[in-house]
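Aggregate trends can hide what the representation actually does to any particular protein. For completeness, the protein is quoted in full, as a sequence line and a line of C-alpha coordinates.
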Amino acid sequence: MSFRLPLILSAVLAVWSAVASAETIKIGVTPGPHAQILEAVKPIAAKQGLDIQLLEFSDYVVPNAALDAGEIQANSFQNQPYLDNQKADRGYKIESVGLTVNFPIGVYSKKHKAFADIPEGGKVSIPNDPTNGGRVLLLLRDKGVIKLKDGVGFKPTVLDITENPKKLKFIEVDAAQAPRALDDVDAAAINTNYATQAGLDPVKDPILREDPKGPYVNLIAVRTVDKDKPWVKILVDSYHTPEVKEFVLTKFKGAVLPSW
Protein backbone atom coordinates (compact mmCIF):
# COMPACT_ATOMS: atom_id res chain seq x y z
CA MET A 1 0.00 0.00 0.00
CA SER A 2 2.88 2.33 0.84
CA PHE A 3 4.21 1.94 -2.73
CA ARG A 4 0.83 2.31 -4.45
CA LEU A 5 -0.16 5.59 -2.79
CA PRO A 6 2.75 7.64 -4.22
CA LEU A 7 2.06 6.17 -7.66
CA ILE A 8 -1.60 7.13 -7.45
CA LEU A 9 -0.72 10.62 -6.25
CA SER A 10 1.78 11.00 -9.09
CA ALA A 11 -0.84 9.98 -11.65
CA VAL A 12 -3.40 12.41 -10.21
CA LEU A 13 -0.85 15.22 -10.20
CA ALA A 14 0.11 14.46 -13.82
CA VAL A 15 -3.53 14.65 -14.93
CA TRP A 16 -4.08 17.85 -12.93
CA SER A 17 -0.94 19.39 -14.42
CA ALA A 18 -2.02 18.52 -17.98
CA VAL A 19 -5.45 20.06 -17.43
CA ALA A 20 -4.00 23.14 -15.79
CA SER A 21 -1.54 23.71 -18.63
CA ALA A 22 -4.02 23.02 -21.45
CA GLU A 23 -4.46 25.93 -23.84
CA THR A 24 -7.99 26.84 -24.86
CA ILE A 25 -8.84 28.26 -28.27
CA LYS A 26 -12.14 29.22 -29.88
CA ILE A 27 -12.74 28.17 -33.48
CA GLY A 28 -15.51 29.63 -35.63
CA VAL A 29 -17.37 27.19 -37.87
CA THR A 30 -20.55 27.04 -39.91
CA PRO A 31 -23.14 24.45 -38.83
CA GLY A 32 -22.98 21.02 -40.44
CA PRO A 33 -19.85 19.24 -41.70
CA HIS A 34 -17.32 21.85 -40.56
CA ALA A 35 -18.62 21.70 -37.01
CA GLN A 36 -18.96 17.91 -37.07
CA ILE A 37 -15.40 17.40 -38.30
CA LEU A 38 -13.96 19.72 -35.65
CA GLU A 39 -15.86 17.74 -33.01
CA ALA A 40 -13.87 14.71 -34.20
CA VAL A 41 -10.66 16.74 -34.00
CA LYS A 42 -11.27 17.92 -30.42
CA PRO A 43 -10.33 14.72 -28.53
CA ILE A 44 -7.19 14.30 -30.65
CA ALA A 45 -6.06 17.85 -29.91
CA ALA A 46 -6.95 17.45 -26.24
CA LYS A 47 -4.39 14.67 -25.91
CA GLN A 48 -1.76 17.23 -26.93
CA GLY A 49 -2.94 19.85 -24.46
CA LEU A 50 -5.18 21.89 -26.76
CA ASP A 51 -8.76 22.49 -25.64
CA ILE A 52 -10.98 23.43 -28.60
CA GLN A 53 -14.24 25.32 -28.16
CA LEU A 54 -16.48 25.67 -31.22
CA LEU A 55 -18.61 28.71 -32.04
CA GLU A 56 -21.15 28.28 -34.84
CA PHE A 57 -21.90 31.15 -37.21
CA SER A 58 -24.90 31.09 -39.53
CA ASP A 59 -23.29 32.95 -42.43
CA TYR A 60 -19.98 33.35 -44.27
CA VAL A 61 -19.27 36.96 -43.27
CA VAL A 62 -19.03 37.06 -39.47
CA PRO A 63 -16.40 34.30 -38.91
CA ASN A 64 -13.62 36.33 -40.55
CA ALA A 65 -14.67 39.54 -38.81
CA ALA A 66 -14.65 37.73 -35.46
CA LEU A 67 -11.24 36.23 -36.19
CA ASP A 68 -9.69 39.52 -37.26
CA ALA A 69 -11.06 41.16 -34.10
CA GLY A 70 -9.52 38.47 -31.91
CA GLU A 71 -12.88 37.21 -30.64
CA ILE A 72 -11.92 33.73 -31.86
CA GLN A 73 -8.49 32.26 -32.53
CA ALA A 74 -9.23 30.35 -35.75
CA ASN A 75 -12.01 29.51 -38.17
CA SER A 76 -12.80 26.64 -40.50
CA PHE A 77 -15.44 27.31 -43.14
CA GLN A 78 -13.99 28.91 -46.28
CA ASN A 79 -11.80 28.34 -49.33
CA GLN A 80 -8.79 30.35 -50.48
CA PRO A 81 -10.54 32.47 -53.15
CA TYR A 82 -13.17 33.51 -50.59
CA LEU A 83 -10.50 34.37 -48.01
CA ASP A 84 -8.50 36.33 -50.59
CA ASN A 85 -11.60 38.30 -51.54
CA GLN A 86 -12.43 39.10 -47.90
CA LYS A 87 -8.87 40.24 -47.22
CA ALA A 88 -8.83 42.46 -50.30
CA ASP A 89 -12.20 44.03 -49.43
CA ARG A 90 -11.80 44.38 -45.67
CA GLY A 91 -8.07 44.43 -44.98
CA TYR A 92 -8.11 41.43 -42.65
CA LYS A 93 -4.75 40.24 -41.33
CA ILE A 94 -5.59 36.54 -41.42
CA GLU A 95 -4.25 33.65 -43.45
CA SER A 96 -4.46 29.94 -44.15
CA VAL A 97 -2.39 27.54 -42.07
CA GLY A 98 -3.72 24.21 -43.37
CA LEU A 99 -6.10 22.61 -45.85
CA THR A 100 -9.15 20.72 -44.66
CA VAL A 101 -11.85 19.35 -46.97
CA ASN A 102 -13.52 19.99 -50.30
CA PHE A 103 -17.26 20.48 -50.74
CA PRO A 104 -18.16 20.14 -54.44
CA ILE A 105 -20.98 22.66 -54.92
CA GLY A 106 -24.22 21.40 -56.47
CA VAL A 107 -27.18 22.75 -58.40
CA TYR A 108 -30.50 21.37 -57.14
CA SER A 109 -34.08 21.45 -58.38
CA LYS A 110 -37.49 20.43 -57.10
CA LYS A 111 -39.03 20.93 -60.54
CA HIS A 112 -36.63 19.28 -62.99
CA LYS A 113 -34.71 16.00 -63.03
CA ALA A 114 -31.99 17.33 -65.33
CA PHE A 115 -30.56 20.79 -65.98
CA ALA A 116 -31.44 20.39 -69.66
CA ASP A 117 -35.12 20.29 -68.64
CA ILE A 118 -35.05 23.89 -67.39
CA PRO A 119 -37.10 25.94 -69.87
CA GLU A 120 -35.98 29.04 -71.69
CA GLY A 121 -36.05 31.98 -69.33
CA GLY A 122 -35.87 29.70 -66.29
CA LYS A 123 -34.78 31.10 -62.94
CA VAL A 124 -31.53 29.91 -61.36
CA SER A 125 -30.41 31.18 -57.96
CA ILE A 126 -26.72 31.57 -57.18
CA PRO A 127 -24.92 32.74 -54.01
CA ASN A 128 -24.57 36.50 -53.80
CA ASP A 129 -20.96 36.54 -52.58
CA PRO A 130 -18.39 36.96 -55.38
CA THR A 131 -16.51 33.74 -54.73
CA ASN A 132 -19.38 31.26 -54.50
CA GLY A 133 -21.49 33.04 -57.11
CA GLY A 134 -18.52 33.05 -59.47
CA ARG A 135 -17.88 29.42 -58.65
CA VAL A 136 -21.37 28.50 -59.87
CA LEU A 137 -20.97 30.52 -63.06
CA LEU A 138 -17.71 28.68 -63.75
CA LEU A 139 -19.50 25.38 -63.18
CA LEU A 140 -22.23 26.37 -65.65
CA ARG A 141 -19.58 27.44 -68.15
CA ASP A 142 -17.73 24.14 -67.78
CA LYS A 143 -21.00 22.25 -68.35
CA GLY A 144 -21.71 24.24 -71.54
CA VAL A 145 -24.70 26.14 -70.17
CA ILE A 146 -23.22 29.64 -70.59
CA LYS A 147 -20.08 31.33 -71.88
CA LEU A 148 -18.01 33.87 -69.96
CA LYS A 149 -15.52 36.57 -70.88
CA ASP A 150 -11.92 35.43 -71.16
CA GLY A 151 -9.72 35.99 -68.13
CA VAL A 152 -12.48 36.25 -65.53
CA GLY A 153 -10.47 34.30 -62.94
CA PHE A 154 -12.30 32.79 -59.98
CA LYS A 155 -14.85 35.58 -59.45
CA PRO A 156 -16.94 36.11 -62.57
CA THR A 157 -20.28 37.86 -62.18
CA VAL A 158 -23.45 37.73 -64.25
CA LEU A 159 -22.10 40.80 -66.07
CA ASP A 160 -19.32 38.58 -67.45
CA ILE A 161 -21.75 36.25 -69.23
CA THR A 162 -21.24 36.58 -72.99
CA GLU A 163 -23.60 33.84 -74.15
CA ASN A 164 -26.74 32.57 -72.43
CA PRO A 165 -28.60 30.49 -75.04
CA LYS A 166 -31.51 29.59 -72.74
CA LYS A 167 -31.83 33.19 -71.49
CA LEU A 168 -31.64 31.97 -67.92
CA LYS A 169 -32.42 34.52 -65.22
CA PHE A 170 -29.85 34.49 -62.44
CA ILE A 171 -31.10 35.47 -59.01
CA GLU A 172 -28.49 36.23 -56.35
CA VAL A 173 -29.34 35.14 -52.81
CA ASP A 174 -27.44 34.81 -49.55
CA ALA A 175 -25.75 31.40 -49.52
CA ALA A 176 -27.47 30.41 -46.27
CA GLN A 177 -30.89 31.15 -47.80
CA ALA A 178 -30.31 29.15 -50.98
CA PRO A 179 -32.28 26.04 -49.86
CA ARG A 180 -35.33 28.24 -49.21
CA ALA A 181 -35.13 29.54 -52.78
CA LEU A 182 -35.72 26.07 -54.21
CA ASP A 183 -39.50 26.47 -54.18
CA ASP A 184 -39.36 29.73 -56.11
CA VAL A 185 -36.81 28.96 -58.84
CA ASP A 186 -36.17 26.29 -61.43
CA ALA A 187 -32.81 25.47 -59.88
CA ALA A 188 -30.65 26.66 -57.00
CA ALA A 189 -26.92 26.39 -56.46
CA ILE A 190 -26.37 25.38 -52.83
CA ASN A 191 -23.16 24.96 -50.86
CA THR A 192 -22.77 21.48 -49.37
CA ASN A 193 -23.05 22.49 -45.72
CA TYR A 194 -26.35 24.29 -46.33
CA ALA A 195 -27.59 21.45 -48.56
CA THR A 196 -27.02 18.85 -45.84
CA GLN A 197 -28.72 21.08 -43.27
CA ALA A 198 -31.76 21.20 -45.57
CA GLY A 199 -31.89 17.40 -45.84
CA LEU A 200 -30.49 17.24 -49.38
CA ASP A 201 -28.01 14.56 -50.47
CA PRO A 202 -25.02 16.39 -52.01
CA VAL A 203 -24.00 13.28 -53.95
CA LYS A 204 -27.33 12.00 -55.29
CA ASP A 205 -29.59 15.06 -55.47
CA PRO A 206 -27.75 17.68 -57.59
CA ILE A 207 -28.71 17.96 -61.25
CA LEU A 208 -25.24 19.49 -61.78
CA ARG A 209 -22.22 19.00 -59.52
CA GLU A 210 -18.79 20.57 -59.44
CA ASP A 211 -15.79 18.35 -60.09
CA PRO A 212 -14.00 17.68 -56.76
CA LYS A 213 -10.83 19.56 -57.68
CA GLY A 214 -9.56 23.06 -58.30
CA PRO A 215 -8.97 25.95 -55.90
CA TYR A 216 -12.03 25.49 -53.73
CA VAL A 217 -10.48 23.37 -51.01
CA ASN A 218 -11.43 24.63 -47.55
CA LEU A 219 -8.91 25.73 -44.97
CA ILE A 220 -8.13 26.63 -41.38
CA ALA A 221 -7.46 30.35 -40.97
CA VAL A 222 -5.80 32.20 -38.10
CA ARG A 223 -4.62 35.75 -37.51
CA THR A 224 -1.27 36.47 -39.11
CA VAL A 225 0.25 37.31 -35.72
CA ASP A 226 -0.70 33.83 -34.43
CA LYS A 227 0.40 31.67 -37.35
CA ASP A 228 3.65 30.50 -35.74
CA LYS A 229 2.25 29.79 -32.28
CA PRO A 230 2.59 26.19 -31.04
CA TRP A 231 -1.18 25.65 -30.78
CA VAL A 232 -1.55 26.25 -34.53
CA LYS A 233 0.66 23.26 -35.33
CA ILE A 234 -1.21 21.12 -32.81
CA LEU A 235 -4.54 22.11 -34.38
CA VAL A 236 -3.45 21.39 -37.96
CA ASP A 237 -1.68 18.15 -37.06
CA SER A 238 -4.74 16.98 -35.11
CA TYR A 239 -6.93 17.68 -38.13
CA HIS A 240 -4.55 15.95 -40.54
CA THR A 241 -4.79 12.54 -38.91
CA PRO A 242 -5.93 9.18 -40.30
CA GLU A 243 -8.71 9.13 -37.69
CA VAL A 244 -10.23 12.38 -38.96
CA LYS A 245 -9.85 11.32 -42.60
CA GLU A 246 -11.68 8.09 -41.85
CA PHE A 247 -14.40 10.05 -40.05
CA VAL A 248 -14.93 12.31 -43.07
CA LEU A 249 -15.08 9.44 -45.54
CA THR A 250 -17.43 7.37 -43.37
CA LYS A 251 -19.69 10.17 -42.16
CA PHE A 252 -20.26 12.06 -45.40
CA LYS A 253 -20.01 9.27 -48.01
CA GLY A 254 -18.49 11.39 -50.78
CA ALA A 255 -20.34 14.63 -50.09
CA VAL A 256 -17.23 15.96 -48.34
CA LEU A 257 -13.75 14.94 -49.44
CA PRO A 258 -10.51 15.07 -47.41
CA SER A 259 -7.90 17.33 -49.00
CA TRP A 260 -4.72 16.41 -47.14
About this structure: The chain has two domains: 23-104+215-258, 106-209. The chain is about 35% helix and 25% strand. The radius of gyration is 22 Å. The longest helix spans residues 4-21.
